[in-house]
Amino acid sequence: MLAEEQVQITAPSQADHFRLAALHRYHILDTPACEDFSFLTELAAKICEVPYAYISLVDADRVWVKSCAGMHIGELPRGESYCSLVVLSEAATEIPDLTLDPRTAHMRLTVNAPHMRMYSSVALTSSDGFAIGTLSVLDTKPGRLSDDKRVMLVKLARQVMALIELRANEKTLEATVHELELLATTDELTGLHNRRSLLHRLKFEVARARRFRSPLSAVMIDLDHFKKINDEYGHAVGDQVLANLGRLLRENVRVIDVAGRYGGEELCVLLPSTPVEGACKFAESLRAKIEAQVHYAGTRPLRITASLGVGAFNHIEIDDVESLLKQADAALYRAKHGGRNRVACGSD
Ligand SMILES: Nc1nc2c(ncn2[C@@H]2O[C@H](COP(=O)(O)OP(=O)(O)OP(=O)(O)O)[C@@H](O)[C@H]2O)c(=O)[nH]1
Predict the structure, then answer these.
(1) C-beta of residue 13 within 8 angstroms of C-beta of residue 118
(2) Whether residue 226 sits in one domain with residue 169
(3) Does 220 sit in the ligand 1 pocket, CB within 6 Å?
(4) Residue 150 counted as domain residue
(5) Are residues 174 and 207 both part of a single domain?
(6) Does ligand 1 have an atom closer than 6 angstroms to the CB of 264?
(7) Which of 255, 295, 309, 326 is deepest in the core (most CB within 10 A)?
(8) What are phi and psi of 54, to 5 degrees?
(9) How high is the pLDDT of residue 318?
């Protein structure tokens, strides 16, 4: 009883708060099983000549086991785990007979099968000096590890920690690469693909349409008299209108569609697997949504319209990459000259 109270009272201290922050920085809790960690755990059991070993991370109210050898434990309540004692003392801990130590005699793994008797462990210490978990070995016979074995256990614990650091660095690198990719392909103002990314995706979609003999359409969108918005209300309001339009497009395209900013106030949507009829329907519905969208110059509401041109390939006549946009551009020209706020389709 006394031991349980000790573990629970000490756990939520200020020091534990910083320790938990160090643990959570590694993003290792609840990650899937991994061969590299299993290998180190098995090696610990082999070197120490004991049947059981595990790598544990001590969270706020549970001890989560990253890998184990000789048994299966997913997680334990913190008050039921020998490892909690190690992270509290932040040192290597050895308990030669768990039944004789008042802190561990009552614990589940001591009382129930497999009736652990010996526990020896080394703290896993974060780069900023916090004990975030342990590498532990256990036996059902009481005893002590020899000095040689303890030295090896300390070395193995360092390898475990190095692996935890490596995995965390890989995750950070992955996230950074993803962020950079996003920055390099996204137009900052509209949140759509930038021109380079749009043209890159166009090449890819043309190749795919050829390969699978599927249709591909492109819709060019140009705002009507946008210069007037800039001239009358200022560039910042013009920018806001473009940003709103970007959001409208993102919310109204399918996951497989590619919406991008082709030029200043000219946007483009690529519609894979969509024949000209479907693309014209989409363009007409988008035109109506743009017309209905309300923007604001301060408190003053504004509306703007757009002209749209649709270009389309069917699978029989997939031409070169540029000709799809040329077709959409020519249709857009007709929509502008036909009076604006309208859709012109294909070569009609
Ligand atoms: N605020 C803002 N304006 C932009 C941006 N890029 C282009 N523009 C403006 O968009 C306007 C385009 O003007 P025009 O090509 O004359 O076309 P328009 O006024 O929309 O007229 P039509 O297309 O013929 O209906 C210019 O005033 C550009 O300065 C931008 O990123 N932000």
Answers:
(1) no
(2) no
(3) no
(4) yes
(5) no
(6) yes
(7) 309
(8) -155, 160
(9) 59
β-strands 216-223, 131-139 pairing: unpaired
* CATH for 248: 3.30.70.270
The reply to whether ligand 1 has any atom less than 6 angstroms from the CB of 333 is no
Q: Report the separation in Å between the CA atom of 267 and the middle of ligand 1, taken as the mean of its atom positions.
A: 12
Looking at the annotation, which residues are catalytic?
265
Tell me, using a 6 A CB cutoff, whether residue 304 lines ligand 1.
no
Same domain, 52 and 170: yes
Give this complex's ipTM. Answer: 0.92
- 71 with 28, same domain: the answer is yes
**Test site for ligand 1: of 224, 228, 229, 265, most ligand atoms within 8 A of the Cβ:** 265
Mean pLDDT of 91-119: 92
Regarding whether 141 and 91 lie in a shared domain, the answer is yes
User: Residues 133, 39: one domain?
Assistant: yes
Which pTM value belongs to this model? 0.69
Evaluated on CA atoms 99, 104, 106, 109, the torsion sign reads negative
The CATH number of residue 63's host domain is 3.30.450.40
What is the 310 CA–ligand 1 centroid distance (Å)? 20
The number of beta carbons lying within 10 Å of the beta carbon of residue 337 is 10
Could you report the per-residue pLDDT of 250-293, keeping only the tens digit for each?
Answer: 999 999 999 999 999 999 999 999 999 999 999 999 999 999 99
In a domain, 31, yes or no: yes
The backbone region for 67, taken as left when phi is positive above 0, alpha when psi lies in -120 to 50, beta otherwise, is beta
Instruction: Examine residue 51 and say whether the peptide bond preceding it is cis (omega within 30 degrees of 0).
Output: no
List pLDDT tens digits, range 175-228. 999 999 999 999 999 999 999 999 999 999 998 998 888 899 999 999 999 999
Ligand 1 atom at shortest distance from the alpha carbon of 264: 6
The atom number, within ligand 1, closest to the CA of 223 reads 20
Instruction: Assign 122 to helix, strand or coil.
Output: strand
Both 172 and 280 in a single domain? Answer: no
Same domain membership, residue 173 and residue 205: no
Length of the chain: 348
Ligand 1 within 6 A of 242 CB? yes
Domains held by the chain: number = 2
